[in-house]
Amino acid sequence: xxxxxxxxxxxxxxxxxxxxxxxxxxxxxxxxxxxxxxxxxxxxxxxxxxxxxxxxxxxxxxxxxxxxxxxxxxxxxxxxxxxxxxxxxxxxxxxxxxxxxxxxxxxxxxxxxxxxx
Length: 117
Prior knowledge:
- By secondary structure, the protein is an alpha+beta fold.
- Helices cover 21% and strands 19% of the residues.
- The protein has 3 helices and 6 strands.
- It has a 4-stranded mixed beta sheet with strand order 1-4-5-2. Strands 3-6 form a two-stranded antiparallel sheet.
- The longest helix has 15 residues, at 66-80.
- The radius of gyration is 23 Å and the shape is elongated.
């Protein structure tokens, strides 16, 4: 069992990057194991940890195919559809409400609670 190299926050050497930093470079970890970690100390809790990967072992990001774009569009459309009234809200329905705003806060003056279009 090997231990990870631990660096203090913002003191990692060149050649290591987090997942977000790899993505900004157009790369992905590509199956490699975590090479090191950053630790940022906190006062009353455990340290914040960020995992680092080697940039020289990273692979390019796979391009989006037409099928992936279609699946992503379908998933986003499902997140916009209100389960109560089955209408496209035009925005992602908040998980805290579970329904669109007109269904969550109905207007007593309107018969259905939805604005007229």
